Amino acid sequence: MSDTTQNGPMLAADGTPLKRSLNRALRRQKLRALMLIAPLLIFVLVTFIAPIADMLFRSVENQIVSDTLPTATEVLEDWDHTTGAPPGEEVYQALYYDLYLAAEARAHTRLGTRLNYEYTGVSSLFRSTGRGLEDLGEEYQDILEDADDRWGEGAFWYELMTGTGDTDARLVREHRARLQALENARLTGDVGFAPSVEIKELLPQTTFAYTDFAVFTALMDEDVVAEEDPWEGVYAGLAQDLETADLSGYDGPGAEALVAAQQTLAEQAEPINYTAFFESEDKDWVSPDIWATIQTYSSTYTGGYFLNAVDMQLTPDGIEMRPDGQRLYMVLFQRTLFMSLTITLSCILLGYPVAWLLANLPASKANLLMILVLLPFWTSLLVRTSAWKVMLQQQGVINDVLVWLGLVDDAARLVMINNQFGTIVAMTHILLPFMILPLYSVMQGIPPSYLRAAKSLGATNWTAFWRVYFPQSVPGIGAGSILVFILAIGYYITPEIVGGRTGTFISNRIAYHISTSLNWGLAAALGAILLAVVLLLYWAYDRIVGIDNVKLG
Amino acid sequence: MALTIAKPTSAIFAAGVAAVFGAFFGIFAGTAQGSGLLGFVAGGAVIFALSWVLASFMREQQKAARWGLAVIFIVAGFLFAGLPGVVTGAIFGVFFGWLIFFVASGRYRTGIPPYATPRQVLWHYAFRIIAGLILVFLITPILVVMPLSFNAEDFFTFTPEMLAFDPEGYSLKHYRDFFTNSDWQGALWNSVRIAPVSTILAVGFGTLAAIGLSQPHVPFRQAIMAILISPMIVPLIISAAGMYFFYSRIGLQGTYLGVVLAHAALGIPFVIITVTATLVGFDRSLTRAAANMGADPVTTFFRVQMPLILPGVISGGLFAFITSFDEVVVVLFVGSAGQKTLPWQMFIGLREQISPTILAVATILVGISICLLATVELLRRRSERLRGMSPS
């Protein structure tokens, strides 16, 4: 054509260079395809991928310790657990106020439960101490209120803490963040309080405790701070501050009351001692082991759950194996693998002849038999599981038949359920169609003439099968095996119902940790390991069979 | 095309083969009565004698011989064990009548190459029996559940009344329980409320995305496909755990919406797979022709593309529906008591207070799945027929 002889770029009908025009069309096509996919992609990302990511995140997340005891863990950082001595007074002081707020928010028991996974007994320690925290402050509260009624009035306290002059809004923000982390929720609303800078410098611990109180009262109880009497913990803070505070330069609200209180406390009260208080609550508090555990697990992220999932533990001295009696996950993983392999093997043994028969029968007969394979495939999983439960029971159909035939004595009925045998039989039955279908589709592609050719060349039946037919059916075995294995390894329902105690899988343990023991981190870690295994196998499946070759029905 | 011509075999051979089966079944009958050995010998001998007579003298009157044998067995069965004996006798009578002449006429050879040695013939049939047993293994559980659901007692095994075909032994009480018990009806209602909505979600999003994925130029096709298929690959317990954690973070845990979204996510891979498979065979020149004649893309989609891929869409939808309808693990974690579905109720029933109503529900569900299986099969055929019509 004459166009091609022209110099310069080829032009499209509208005069733009053809190359650009084509590119634009291609881009538009890509964009249209993506627009069609986008809604679903976003849907799956939100409803499915995000949950999986959340689970993976939970398997390493460990904010609870530093969220619940923020100051204590910070002060504890400098403590060296190898000395064998409990940490100093400043740690106990920080612990008191951290724990006080946590106890008010009822979050201390959660932390106790969390640390109990690592160190038995922490749970009850936290719970009992949480109940007794008020006692320390009450002592000082009584003395102060006896001397001057105003110490029992919320309004007086509010005036004292608000003071005159500049207020410190940052402290309130910090404490709001502290409470948010503790409650695991966003807290909105006005606190309606900010401590004065002057009083904060004069009475730091009191301000700390009072701000906790104010934030909690305003945001959680939704009360007016000025109308509420402060927590007992605030009095403990005041007692500590007044031991050393120099009140001479202070002339804000309640100055004379503070001076009087300093005097009263100096005369009537013992100096405050947090260590002694915690020791009296529970001797365990002065044991270095507890503190070593808290220190070890104070980081925001931990590999502790994964270590737990493989029967190891993170101790202050590093990673080590759990004691013999507590190792159960490796056994469980081994059992899961062993049973999945057994199920896969049984499926090969049972599926191969059926697939061979289906592939070698005339189409009309094969379709008829195919219904027998597809019917269980389409039947509800629970129907099949209940059927096996009914059949395998000691008073079930199989035992009844065996007894009737006289093969088994009525008194010695076989135990075929609630053990590995039951799980293997039921799951082999349930997964068998997943083996037969890929095998069948592979075997259909093997020309029967190969087998006849081998025989006509003098091969025996067995040789012809083993050397000619079998190698060609191996891809089908591979595809079916991986499919069955992937499905088996993550099964939950059937082992739960017919597995009893010895026939359960790792998935049952995951469910147990989610719904019964509430150790979500460990459940997530076990799930992450299982997911990794499945994805690895799936990758292999993709290499052997290809994702696009997944067919249904 | 039978290469092998059926040659009648000797009466002794036919009788011998039949006797092997007779002896085999005799063992069971014998053990049930107290002596396996006696049953073995008696079964073998009786069948041998009968078969020899039939194969020797009645080859020409096959029909009469088979009827006669059946009647003999039925009468014998009745004398031994009453009504159940009649059924057993009829089954065995028909079976042996068929077996004797199958062997005696030489018909058993027709499906096998003429050069096959006797051992190969034996293996041929042995193999069929093995494969048959495996197929029986596949459907026995379903076959056992159905009759047991009509049990008049609260037992999970066949009562003597049932085995005696006594009408007293059968009842519809478990079905009645299912239809009147508020727990079961509530569960059924929840399933009916959840499954269709999640199916619509899955089909709507899934079909659009499948059409997008089948365009010629899709960037990151592999990665997108992997993400969309992932709900099918990830073990359910892991999906359930992740959804439980995440949905409780965002307040969807224990809500109807949460369960619907979760089930829709699980059903999506099935829609994607079936619809993309249908689109593989889709002839693009049809849409171009439609555009050429002035149809806008929406009209083209609904008038040209949609009718052709509809079978794929519907069968994908059926898969999504059955996924949601059958699903128990995810709903167990994501749902709360208010979303208790039928499978959940069955799961509770199986784990805790095992009640035979489960068997009635199971039978109903098997019925439903047979209907769905038939629908999918019909749709597949229609789809293939449609594809055959369009030039490809």
Distance between the termini of chain A: 54 Å
Shape of chain A: elongated
Beta-strand percentage range of chain B: under 5%
The second-level CATH architecture of the largest domain in chain B is: Orthogonal Bundle
Number of helical stretches of at least 4 residues of chain B = 15
**Structural class, from secondary structure content of chain A?**
mainly alpha
Biggest β-sheet of chain A, characterized? Answer: 2 strands, antiparallel
What labels would you give this structure?
heterodimer; A: 553 residues; mainly alpha; MetI-like fold; 3 domains; two-stranded antiparallel sheet; elongated; B: 392 residues; 2 domains
Topology, element by element:
The complex is a heterodimer of chains A (553) and B (392).
Chain A: H1 18-58, H2 63-68, H3 70-76, H4 89-104, H5 108-116, H6 122-147, H7 154-162, H8 169-183, H9 197-202, H10 204-219, H11 232-244, H12 255-268, H13 274-281, H14 288-296, H15 304-309, E1 312-315, E2 318-321, H16 329-360, H17 363-378, H18 381-392, H19 397-405, H20 420-444, H21 448-456, H22 461-489, H23 493-498, H24 506-515, H25 520-544
Antiparallel strand pairs in A: 1-2
Helix pairs in contact in A: 1-25, 3-4, 4-6, 5-6, 6-11, 6-12, 8-10, 10-11, 16-17, 16-20, 16-22, 17-20, 18-20, 20-22, 21-22, 22-25, 24-25
Chain B: H1 11-33, H2 36-57, H3 62-104, H4 118-148, H5 160-163, H6 173-180, H7 182-213, H8 221-233, H9 236-249, H10 256-280, H11 284-292, H12 297-326, H13 329-334, H14 342-351, H15 357-389
Helix pairs in contact in B: 1-2, 1-3, 2-3, 4-15, 6-15, 7-10, 7-12, 7-14, 8-10, 10-12, 11-12, 12-15
Membrane topology (chain A): Multi-pass membrane protein
Domain ABC transmembrane type-1 (chain A): 333-541
GO biological process, one term (chain A): transmembrane transport
Provide a descriptive summary of the structure in words.
The complex is a heterodimer of chains A (553) and B (392). With 553 residues, chain A is an all-alpha fold. Chain A folds into three domains: 16-58, no CATH class; 70-296, no CATH class; 331-549, MetI-like fold (Orthogonal Bundle). Helices cover 68% and strands 1% of the residues of chain A. In chain A, strands 1-2 form a two-stranded antiparallel ribbon. In chain A, helix 4 (89-104) packs across helix 6 (122-147) and helix 16 crosses helix 22 (461-489). Chain A is elongated and about 115 Å long. Chain B has 392 residues and is mainly alpha-helical. In chain B, helix 8 packs across helix 10 (256-280). Chain B is extended, with a radius of gyration of 29 Å. Chain B: It comes from Pseudooceanicola marinus. Chain B: Keywords: Cell inner membrane, Cell membrane, Membrane, Transmembrane, Transmembrane helix, Transport. Chain B: Belongs to the binding-protein-dependent transport system permease family. Chain B: One of its GO terms (cellular component) is plasma membrane. Chain B: It is found in: Cell inner membrane; Cell membrane.
